[in-house]
Structures are given as C-alpha cells and as structure tokens.
C-alpha cells in the first residue's frame, strides 16, 4: 500500500523516562505528604460561604478509615467497586480507599442512563457500589438485579462514608498495611468505561503503573512553571481520565484540590478559590472569551476589545517565535490593565496555566489566552492511554498542535495516517474483551488510537481526522451518532436522521420526515386538510418526534443525549451533495448545507 | 400493457413497459419483479443475436448483449461466478439483497442506511446509462436460482468528468471470497474505457475489507468526516487508452435510444 506522504515525519519519541519501581502505587503520594508535611492543605470543599481545607494528614486518615470499612464489607484484593458520583471530595477519598483495600475503582458518570449503569455494573462484576444520591440509588435498585455480583449500594448523601468508617473499626491497621504492601505497579487500579462507535461501552483497564507514570509525564511538562502552593478548582467529572489524571498530578505535587459544587456555582467558586491552575475542556475557555466579548460590546467597548484581542494574539505569536515587536509590547502593556485584567478576574485573578483536552482548542484562542497571561497546555490522549500521549510543554509550546510525545512515549504515523502510540501509560486491554483488545493493541505494544494525524519536522503532533465515527462535543464527551440515528430511523415517520454536535455544546439531531408516513399520520390526527409544509411546522408533529427522540435517548447518558432537533424541509439529496452519487450520507455536508438550521439549534 | 399477460411472480396484470435495451421489457407494477417471456420484443434492428437464431428482431433473449459484457470467473472457494452489467429489471433483486444485508454491511454501504430502499432510491440505482453510471452484479450460477451476491457501481461526478464515485457491496455470507475484487476490477476497466481517470471511494475506516481492497493499489487516503476515509485510486492509464470497443458503442447507442422513449413512471 502506498499513500501520499502527508507528514514530514513518521515517528517521534519523547525523552527517556526512568521506569517505576515494581512496587510503586498511587497511594504513595498521599502517604508521603501525610508523613512529610501533615498540615499541608491538599484538598478543600465548600461549606457555607467559603472553602474548608483538608490537611494531608486528615486526608490520609479518612482514606485509611474508609479502606478499612471496605475491607470489613468483604472487599478483597482485585474486587471491583463501582463509584457513581459527580466530582466531590468524597469521590477522591472513596477512590483512594478502594485502591488502599487492594481493589479496583469502576467510575460511572453521574449522568449515565439506567441501561449504561446496568451494563457497567454487570460487565465489571462490581461487588459494591458507592452512589452519590438517593435518586442514583433508585436507579441502582432498578437495574442491579441484572448485576447479581453487586451486594450493596452505599449512598454518599445518606452517610455512606460514616457507615464505612464505622464498619472499619473492627479492622486493625496491620490488615490494611498488608493490603497496601500488596499493591504492585502492574496491579489493576481502575476500569474506565468508554463508549465505542457500536455496541456496549468497553472497560479500559488502567494499572497503577499506567496512571502513576502518566502523572509523572504530565508533571514533567509543566514542572518549570510550578510553585509550591498551587491551587486548582475541579469541576469536570472525575470519571473522565483527563480530570482524574490532573487531580492525581495535584496530589503528587501537593497542590490543593478544591472541589466545585456544581457548574452553576463555578464563577462564584472561581472567585473564592482563586485557582492557579485548571483542567478544562475547550468549551470553558470559549465561554469565558465570548462572555467577555459580549460584555465589552454591550458596554460600547467592542472595538477596544477587538483590538485587545488582536494585540494579545500578536503578542503571543511574537513571544512564541522569539521576535516581539516593541509596538506590540507597548500596546500589550496598555491593554493589560484595561482589558486583560478583567478577563483574568473571571478566573479568580491568579490563574497561570491550564490543561485542556477532550477536543481541539483553536489556535487563536490559545494564543489569546497566552497573550493575557494564561498558558494553556493542550495535549492529546485517550482513556486507553491513561490519558496523555503528547502535550505542549512549557519549553516546547506550539499552539495548533497537541505537542510532542511525553517522556517514554513514541508516536508513529501508520501508512493510512492513523496515530499509533507506545509507552508505559498505554493500557493493558479492555476488561473481558480480548477480541476488542486485539483490534487496538498490537503484540509489540503499539496502540491504535483511531485518530489520524501528522507529525511536523520537530515532532509536534497535529490531529487531522478521526477513524472512529464519533462526535466529540465541546465538553469532550464522545458520542457515537450511528446507534442514535438507527434508533431514530426506526420510527416510521423519520426517513433520515443526522446526529450532529462535533465541537458543539451538546448533541442535536436533524430529521427528515417520510412524506407518505406523514400523510398517514395526518389522517390519523385529523389533519388531512393541512399541506405538508403546514404539517412540518405543526406542534403536534414536533411533539410526536420528540417522543422518538426521547426513545432514542434512553440508551445514552444525559451528556450524550439529543437535546434539540430540527425538522428538515426536504429529504437529503444527491444534488445538494448531502448524499454522494452512490447515496452515502455526508454528515459534514449536511451540517454545512443546513448551517442556518444548525446555528438555530445551538442558538 | 393490458394484453392479458400477467406477472409470473404475483399474478398482477399491471405490467409496465420498462427495462433497458439490455434487459427485460416489462416490470410488474405491483411486486417490481420482471416479467420476462414472450410478447413483442425490443427492437434491436438488424443486429445479430448470438443468443438465438433470429436476426432483426429479438423477442425473448435480448440478453445477448449482457452475455457479451459478462465475464465468468472463479471465487477463492472454487465456485464459479458470473459478473454481468446490472439491469433495470434487477431492481427487485437489489431491494431483496439490501433487505438481507446485515446492519453493519448496510451502514458501510449507505452510512446512514434507510430501513428499506424505496422506489426513488431503486430508480436511482438501476436507471443506468452505462457510461456515466455503470453497475455490475456478481451472480452465483451454481444455485437453483442464480443469485446476485455482490453489486458494484461507479457514478461520474457532476462537476468533474474525470472522476467517478464507487460503491461496492457484497452479501454478508459471501464476503472475503474475492467478489469485491472481481467487481472493482470490472468497474475499473469499464470506467477507464469511458474516460474516467480516477475513482473516489468513501468508506468507513472500520470497513477493513473495503480498505484492504482499495489500498491494494496505489492510492491516496485522506480523512473525510469522523469515521470516513476518502480513498482515491488512479485508474491505469493504459486501459484508458484502449480504443472504444464496438460492443460498448453499441450498448451506449441503445441506452441513449431507450432513454428517449416515453416512460410510464
């Protein structure tokens, strides 16, 4: 097979990485901080009008108490424990406790549908589930009969942690120390379920080595920028590997992890916590930028803002290239106090850098934020790679790319353009799915990412396409459109369904209606006298189609569900290019030819 | 037609004059099956028909043209297969073949597949001119009823006469036996003769069989939208230089004439 060389390099490798000790594990940093600096604040949670710090010692003690509770509850080394909760202090405590007990954490997104929860509990064979709310408990009750291995569900909001701690009293320290001593680098730490393009979610097995190594690799990229007293505000789901990894980076470094209560309180809590580093998806940066832009325009400062934006970008570009023009520097200094400081204030005023992942962040936006003093480190990786494979480093930063391979990691571009990766952070396989593992993991350790990319001459990776038929929303959620579309088309009224949402805030659908079925439906409804055009605009049709959308949504989590839909005035056609001459649907062209409809969906 | 003839498949008397000059002449309006025998045939002028002794007017076997454009081959499992042009009358077979495809194969063929192929789609897929839109079918002849197990077509791009888009489908039970290769090779030869220099294929990256088939030749792969690869294959120029054969001129002449005739649908 030959293909036109699209890249200047086929292989790039990161610097060498010292291998981990065979007995290294994820608890080590928690234990180290408790011993070396017991009073260091390592976490913080919201209480009333402020945040309350948790010391390294208190954190460690709570983890141990919970771990004993799990041991008392019959959790044996290697057992799986499901954790269904949104991001909060208890999430991390329970996660560490599960690891300390020698068991494996199976995180489940709090937005998962009942079907997904049932599948993950059953497939992982989890023996205990820790769930956040009574509502989640009732979902668990609905589905757990199918997951017979699961003995009980403990509800965080109903005192699950106190209950576990109480149970743990009967377990002595030596028993727990033995469990911790039994941990190995290659022992399984967590199984993270990811949705593929078809079929059920698959469980990615991540070992202590995978995660601990990736923490070191990420730390390495930003170490030169780190201070002793970093603070972060966590708000993304910890069930997402990137969030989890950056949380682990913070624990390793001894940075304070403040937990946001929910997204609605995020702006307020940014001001309270004043984080110095963040992990976020591109959408967050876009939102902050557009909000500031809109506000400036509303105040009649639109022109100043635009100019400030230009200057920030040119300053960053010049700075990165090492050729800064004095005039830009001067303007940059002026806008610094006029405009940039206000934007900085939106993040609390102390933010210096952020990790971004889950989707592409625009090159201009990256330069803009750098221009105002917030360095964004965009990287690339997958759940299967724990996750970071490449990242822009403090000293090797190239916006528009996802950086160079991290230490100990090699990236290879296959003949068909696919990005292959090997390194100590690459997972060992999917849980209970050898065939699926063999599809992505070669015997010699090369992992097939399913993404397409190019390496530039300096070894920076650029993502250019995706082999998997997946939509990645702006929030970084992977959504397989095909199963949703299949479910939608199962409705006789729907002739074509196209699910959209790539780099958009949520998933939406465009539906073409079968005209024959529409007439029949109209007759049923006593709407014979209406024209097709009138019917397409009819509220009852919308209602009817909403039913089909709701039905399709039953299979997916809230984050993956179709939140809006539009009814197309006509079928997709070859003439418009929406279908290829041989009648294959071109999703990208459909989105383009109905761009007005799409914009309306995302109004 | 109203002359008392009935569809052999369902008994309906509503037979529509239809089909290409290459094929059958009546299609049952009710079940879509071809009505094949007897009656007044298509004018084929004074051309010789190798299929029957008559000259000037071929009543029952205009299939001779098809014969001439067909090739027989052997699959990797040793079974004989016939590759012949797709005919208007094959629409029933095409619809049935689609209905039997697995969801996965349907998705690979249409990306966003309908529940079933409707009349409009079938018309689009069987109303061929054999120059800008050519399709062929692989038929297993060693079965009691010869069965079409693979379909392939190219359609010339509207704004780009050198380029044609290709789609290939093989019935699930017959995949990985060389049928795709056989069909694509046939398409390539016909296309080259018709002045097409490049084939464009849109295929799912997870359609390993298609990717293998297409990337066997020198090709250019670029990512289209997520999940989809665009694979361009240059057709060998030496085939393109082969002068137009008598047979192809003949077929096109008939196709052109047939298209000028009034249509019932």
Task: Note the main attributes of this structure.
heterodimer, A: 603 residues, alpha/beta, five-stranded antiparallel beta sheet, five-stranded mixed beta sheet, 21 helices, 25 strands, 21% strand, globular, disordered N terminus, B: 265 residues, alpha+beta, eight-stranded mixed beta sheet, three-stranded antiparallel beta sheet, 8 helices, 28% helix
Structural class given helices, strands, pairing of chain B?
alpha+beta
Shape of chain A: globular
Q: Determine the fraction of residues in helical runs of chain B and give it as a percent range.
A: 25-40%
The portion of residues forming beta strands of chain A comes to 15-25%
Low-confidence parts of chain B? 18-29, 31-64, 239-243, 259-265
Radius of gyration of chain A: 25 Å
Give an account of the 3D structure.
The complex is a heterodimer of chains A (603) and B (265). Chain A is α/β, with parallel strands linked by helices. Chain A has 21 helices and 25 strands. In chain A, the strands form 7 sheets. In chain A, strands 1-17-18-19-20 form a 5-stranded antiparallel β-sheet, with no helix packed on it. A 5-stranded mixed β-sheet of chain A has the order 12-13-14-15-16, with helices on both faces. In chain A, strand 13, helix 14 (363-371) and strand 14 form a beta-alpha-beta unit. In chain A, helix 8 (208-222) packs across helix 9. The longest helix of chain A has 21 residues, at 326-346. Chain B is α+β, with helices and mostly antiparallel strands and 265 residues long. Chain B contains 8 helices and 13 strands. Chain B has helices spanning 63-68, 91-100, 103-110, 119-126, 179-193, 208-215, 237-240, 246-260; strands at residues 15-17, 26-28, 34-35, 43-48, 55-57, 71-74, 80-85, 133-140, 147-157, 160-170, 198-204, 219-223, 228-234. In chain B, the strands form 3 sheets. In chain B, strands 6-7-8-9-10-11-13-12 form an 8-stranded mixed β-sheet, sandwiched between helices. In chain B, strands 1-2-3 form a 3-stranded antiparallel β-sheet, with no helix packed on it. A two-stranded antiparallel sheet of chain B has the order 4-5. In chain B, a hairpin with a 6-residue loop joins strand 8 (133-140) and strand 9 (147-157). The longest helix of chain B is centred in the C-terminal third of the chain and has 15 residues, at 179-193. Chain B is globular and about 50 Å long. The chains are: A alpha/beta (603), B alpha+beta (265). Chains A and B meet through strand 20, strand 21, helix 16 and strand 23 of A and helix 3, helix 4, strand 9, strand 10 and strand 12 of B.
């Amino acid at each position: 097979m030959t293909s036109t060389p699209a890249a200047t390099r086929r292989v790039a490798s990161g610097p060498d990485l010292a291998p981990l000790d065979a007995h290294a594990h994820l608890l080590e940093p928690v234990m180290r901080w408790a011993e070396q600096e017991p009073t260091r604040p390592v976490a913080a949670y919201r209480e009333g009008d402020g945040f309350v710090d948790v010391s390294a010692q208190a954190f460690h003690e709570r983890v141990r108490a919970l771990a004993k509770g799990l041991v008392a509850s019959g959790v044996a080394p290697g057992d799986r424990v499901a954790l269904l909760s949104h991001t909060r202090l208890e999430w991390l405590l329970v996660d560490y406790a599960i690891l300390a007990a020698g068991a494996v954490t199976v995180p489940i997104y709090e937005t998962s549908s009942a079907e997904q929860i049932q599948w993950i509990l059953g497939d992982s064979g989890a023996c205990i589930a820790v769930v956040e709310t009574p509502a989640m408990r009732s979902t668990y009750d609905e589905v757990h009969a199918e997951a017979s291995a699961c003995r009980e569900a403990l509800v965080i909001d109903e005192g699950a942690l106190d209950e576990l701690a109480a149970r743990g009293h009967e377990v002595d320290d030596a028993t727990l120390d033995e469990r911790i001593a039994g941990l190995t680098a290659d022992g399984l730490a967590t199984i993270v379920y990811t949705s593929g393009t078809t079929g059920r979610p698959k469980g990615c097995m991540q070992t202590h080595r995978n995660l601990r190594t990736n923490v070191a690799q990420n730390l390495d990229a930003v170490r030169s920028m780190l201070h002793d007293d970093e603070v972060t505000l966590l708000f993304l789901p910890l069930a997402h590997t990137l969030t989890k990894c950056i949380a682990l980076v913070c624990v390793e470094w001894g940075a304070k992890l403040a937990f946001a209560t929910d997204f609605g309180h995020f702006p307020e809590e940014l001001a309270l916590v004043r984080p110095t580093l963040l992990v976020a998806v591109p959408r967050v940066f876009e939102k902050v930028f557009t909000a500031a832009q809109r506000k400036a325009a509303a105040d009649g400062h639109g022109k100043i803002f635009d100019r400030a934006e230009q200057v920030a970008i040119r300053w960053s570009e010049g700075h990165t290239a090492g050729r800064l023009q004095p005039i830009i520097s001067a303007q940059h200094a002026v806008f610094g106090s006029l405009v940039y400081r206000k934007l900085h204030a939106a993040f609390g005023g102390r933010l210096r850098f952020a990790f971004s992942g889950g989707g592409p962040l625009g090159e201009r936006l990256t330069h803009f934020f750098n221009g105002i003093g917030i360095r964004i480190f965009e990287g690339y990786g997958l759940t299967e790679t724990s996750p970071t494979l490449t990242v822009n480093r403090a000293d090797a930063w190239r916006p528009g790319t996802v950086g160079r391979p991290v230490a100990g990691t090699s990236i290879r571009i296959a003949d068909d353009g696919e990005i292959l990766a090997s390194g100590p952070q690459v997972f060992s396989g999917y849980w209970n799915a050898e065939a699926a593992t063999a599809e992505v993991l070669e015997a010699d350790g090369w992992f097939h990412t399913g993404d397409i990319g190019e390496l530039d001459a300096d070894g920076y990776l650029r993502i250019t396409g995706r082999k998997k038929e997946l939509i990645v929303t702006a929030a970084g959620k992977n959504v397989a459109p095909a199963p949703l579309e299949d479910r939608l088309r199962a409705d006789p009224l729907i002739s074509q369904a196209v699910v959209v949402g790539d780099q958009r805030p949520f998933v939406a659908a465009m539906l073409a209606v079968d005209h024959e079925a529409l007439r029949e439906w109209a007759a049923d409804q006593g709407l014979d006298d209406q024209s097709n055009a009138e019917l397409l605009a009819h509220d009852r049709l919308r209602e009817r189609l909403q039913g089909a959308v709701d039905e399709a949504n039953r299979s997916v989590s809230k984050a993956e569900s179709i939140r809006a839909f539009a009814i197309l005035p006509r079928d997709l056609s070859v003439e418009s290019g929406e279908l290829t001459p041989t009648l294959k649907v071109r999703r990208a062209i459909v989105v383009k030819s109905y761009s007005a409809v799409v914009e309306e969906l995302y109004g | 037609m109203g002359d008392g003839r009935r569809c052999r498949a369902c008994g309906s008397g509503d037979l529509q004059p239809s089909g290409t000059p290459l094929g059958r002449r009546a299609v049952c309006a009710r079940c879509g099956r071809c009505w094949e025998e007897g009656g007044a045939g298509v004018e084929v002028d004074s051309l010789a028909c190798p299929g029957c002794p008559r000259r000037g007017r071929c009543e029952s076997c205009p299939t001779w043209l098809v014969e001439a454009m067909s090739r027989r081959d052997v699959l990797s499992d040793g079974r004989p297969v016939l590759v012949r042009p797709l005919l208007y009358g094959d629409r029933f077979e095409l619809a049935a073949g689609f209905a039997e495809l697995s969801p996965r194969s349907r998705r690979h063929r249409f990306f966003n597949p309908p529940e079933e192929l409707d009349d409009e789609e079938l018309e689009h897929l069987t109303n061929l001119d054999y120059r800008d839109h050519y399709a062929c079918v692989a038929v297993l002849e060693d079965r009691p009823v010869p069965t079409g197990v693979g379909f392939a077509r190219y359609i010339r791009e509207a704004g780009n006469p050198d380029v044609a888009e290709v789609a290939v489908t093989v019935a699930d039970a017959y995949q990985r036996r060389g049928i795709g290769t056989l069909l694509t090779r046939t398409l390539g030869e016909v296309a080259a003769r018709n002045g097409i220099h490049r084939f464009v294929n849109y295929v799912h990256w997870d359609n390993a069989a298609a990717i293998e088939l297409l990337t066997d030749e020198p090709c250019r792969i670029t990512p289209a939208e997520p999940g989809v690869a665009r694979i361009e294959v240059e057709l060998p120029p030496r085939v393109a230089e082969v002068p137009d054969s008598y047979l192809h001129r003949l077929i096109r002449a008939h196709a052109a004439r047939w298209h000028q005739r009034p249509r019932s649908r």
